[in-house]
Design goal:
Blueprint (H helix, E strand, L loop, with lengths): L1 H17 L7 E6 L4 E7 L2 E2 L2 H11 L1 H36 L12 H35 L25
Antiparallel strand pairs: 1-2, 2-3
Helix pairs in contact: 2-3, 3-4
Length: about 170
């Protein structure tokens, strides 16, 4: 019994020594009717924007900048998605509604459709950028990642090779 208690105590001390001092953040990315919703989770709790900004500012200013870029990209995504939806509805209403008789025909259907497609494409680009920046923000907060790539650190091409330097 004493051995089991001692082993349990050692296991608890070892696991506490390897645990992280700050909590891990997770992402919950959901697609809703118009855009996407990016939630930052601290365990089961959804964090508010103010709580996230406080965490990021306390931990690392670069992480806070990444979070601000994420919010900016997400806002642009919402703007373009709403505009695309409005132009799509306008195109459908224009095509379905009866046209008045006049001598000049109005050909607004094709430009409206192309504008709608363009706005949806731009919205998708900002949606993807916001999602990728949110992942990068969480990785930066959890693991302290920086912008420098780690995997090419020792084998860089501008280091001397046989006393020659290759520069581009």
């Amino acid at each position: 019994m004493k051995n089991t208690g001692l082993l349990l105590l050692l296991f608890c001390l070892a696991s506490a020594g390897h645990s992280q001092t700050q909590p891990y953040l997770k992402l919950d990315i959901r697609q809703n009717f118009i855009t996407q919703k990016i939630d930052f989770l601290d365990g089961p709790k959804r964090l508010t924007k103010l709580e996230i900004q406080e965490l990021m500012a306390r931990e690392n200013p670069e992480t806070q900048d990444l979070y601000r870029k994420t919010i900016s990209q997400s806002n642009l995504n919402s703007i373009f998605a709403v505009a695309g939806l409005a132009v799509s509805i306008g195109t459908i209403v224009y095509v379905v509604s009866p046209q008045r008789q006049s001598f000049t025909s109005s050909n607004l259907g094709l430009p409206l459709a192309l504008t709608s497609i363009g706005l949806e494409i731009v919205s998708g680009v900002f949606r993807r950028n916001a999602r990728n920046l949110a992942r990068e923000t969480v990785d930066s907060y959890n693991f302290g990642r920086t912008d420098q790539p780690v995997y090419f650190e020792e084998n860089r091409i501008d280091q001397p090779i046989f006393s020659k330097v290759i520069r581009f």
